[in-house]
UniProtKB/TrEMBL annotation:
It comes from Flexivirga alba. PANTHER family: ENDONUCLEASE/EXONUCLEASE/PHOSPHATASE FAMILY PROTEIN (AFU_ORTHOLOGUE AFUA_3G09210), ENDONUCLEASE_EXONUCLEASE_PHOSPHATASE FAMILY PROTEIN (AFU_ORTHOLOGUE AFUA_3G09210). Keywords: Signal. This is Lamin tail domain-containing protein. InterPro entries: Endo/exonu/phosph_ase_sf, Endo/exonuclease/phosphatase, Lamin_tail_dom, Lamin_tail_dom_sf, TAT_signal. Residues 1-34 form the signal peptide. Residues 159-219 are annotated as: Disordered.
Amino acid sequence: MPQRITRVRLVTLLAASALAVGGSASLAVTPAHAASNSVVISAVYGGGGNSGAPYKNDYIELYNGGLSAIDLSGWTLTYYSAAGSSGGTTTLSGSVAPGAHFLVQEGAGAGAADPLPAPDATGSLNMSASNGSVVLRQNGAAVDTVGYGAVTSSYVEGSNAPAGTNKAADSRTKGCVDTDDNSKDFVSADPAPLNSAAPLGVCGTDGNTQPPPTGTSSTIEQVQGTSFQSPLVGQQVKDIKGVVTAVNGSAGFWIQSTTPDDDPRTSEGLYVFGGAGMVKVGDDVTVAGKVSEYRPGGVNNGNLTTTELGSPNIQVNSSGNALPAAVEIGSEGHVPPAQVIEQGNPGNVETVGLTLDPTTNALDFWESLEGMRIQETDAKAVGPTATSYGETPIVPANTEDVTWTPNGGVLYRDYDTPNAMRLILSDALLPKGSIAPANTGDSYAGVTAGVLDYNFGNYYLMATQAGQHQSGGTTRDVTTAPTKQQASVATFNVENLAPSDPQTKFDRLAGQITTNLASPDVLAIEEIQDNTGATDDGTVDSTQTTDKLIAAIKAAGGPSYKAEWINPVNDQDGGQPGGNIRSVFLYRSDRGMTFVDKPGGTSTNSVAVTGTGPWASINYSPGRIDATNTAWDDSRKPLVGEFLWWGKPLFVVANHFASKGGDDGLMGRYQQPERSSEVQRHAQATAVRSFVDQLLTANKQANIIVLGDLNDFNFSETANIVKGSGKTALTDLIDTLPANERYSYDYQGNSQVLDQLLVSPALAKKYDYQVVHTNSQFYDQDSDHDPQIVKLQIH
């Protein structure tokens, strides 16, 4: 079963509206950042020359957190008493460099104290040490305001900063971040005036803030380039301009150019890693930083990378700007190739020299939009929402060139149909619950918009706006009860069932078994864990697990089942560490089915065929096939049981083959993807087929059912090996269904086959077979697999 790995960089996010922190003066003062918000007041000191003061003069300190020098011509500083009376104005001149301070010396007190460092400007304001306000203006428009003291100031952002004293100044906190709330942005600290000669990029009470921007002037398009990785990786760049389109919690934010180039291969979007607290959606920014490529999961895996700008230097030029129009996926010129991820065999698509071809390759199409605003109208859910992650696979409403399942999924019908137009819709940028969970076949009416990101083998639509959920009407299947003459046999992967699971899981599974499967005579169950579940304590027996399930079935109105299995050697059968998953037979004896108990089968010895003709049998029941074969290393061993249906022998082989872990992802950097895990499954299939051949050699009319989670597709070589050929070929019953109904599992929006049920020639003459869709299409699933059942007459 494929594993979902949680993203490291992505964090749970707040709504864009909650990200904007604002404040206004209690009088009708123009809000901060009306003119230029790169320069802020970084410190105010009004105790100069008073008793005990360390400095003779009052001072006001400015800091330029922007990316370019600021000419202070036309700038002023005005002091106001707490009551709002003006105490005078200082006119500024000169300039302040990026990352630099600017010290303004004001009036002196009568006491003896040290002089200030050489001031960059001089005024004569006599400020109160304890209460007052200072307003910085550019050409009459307020740029920054600081109100301080116990008495609420007439001019203030948010609420007052602490009161100053003769021995304490009001200084900005670490990094000189300006949230427009004086009480949050300032603390009382020892006076430490800094002038233009002070170190660059150092501001606030304890440490570095933005260093002056360095590097090559670039655009977003130049950073993104025309390939999967940036041509500027490892380089410092500056003057990157764009509008903030989404904020990723405290981790970073996306920007997009408002002056795109005319090359369809270059994305106009870019992720900035860091600095999220300095911006909000709609800010026009200029950014500098170091270009890097982020690969989820580490440097050595098969995931693609995302281009990002790290250690950013950020200048907010203006706020409240309109966002660039979102690209409509599915509209003319923006239709992803549905069935071509990457043409040919390029190997590693990140190889230097390979350029994007968005019109031919889906991988290139999505890469050319990395970090940009995109949207889908009336998006269709082609798989259920993974509620733990808030993720739903979607496709545009007008998607073509795919095979639709009856309930609105997209069929993964062979290796040449990867259905590359799928996106994963994520709600991580929205408040929890903003996007209703979906079943396969549901839709989101209207516009679903956000930014395009990549994470662990898939491109994601990180939604900032979601359409209205509409049900597609998908319901759970219910099979018909077998006739008196029909034996019913089913397979069901119950996904790591352990006694510690909530009773509701047992009850719901029991409901599926009794109602949806009509209480089959034999049920092969995969992924039964031991009595202590995933606790790795040496326990291998699973009696408590099966007893709890059997009791739940009985409570749901089902029959009294009995269970048969073989305990594995501790930690040798793969799956969740400590869980010791195994296959188990449940059977009922009230309708003519009997289990033939032949003791002696263990986890390390192998079942063998005995006798010939009508007397063909096996030596152990239950038993394991070729138990010491290395094909079963770190994997479940097939369980064989001999049953009698009204005295007629029936051999059932329950399987759970090795998982697909280690295979290249469909949307990864290695194209075409390699399926390295197949090697082990081919060996396992060969071992199972060998056992089937031995039984059919002993009795060509043997009634054999091979079933379970083969962890491979019905069109795979694994399945073909098990099927065999010629007169002894098994019939894979899922192949007998209409093509668009062949699925029992959904992985990232691809409806596919992992579970199979095959019958020998003697049983293939007359049967009633069904995949009972109870889980794979539903977000409130009890397992990630659908069960299958066959009802047949045994001769």
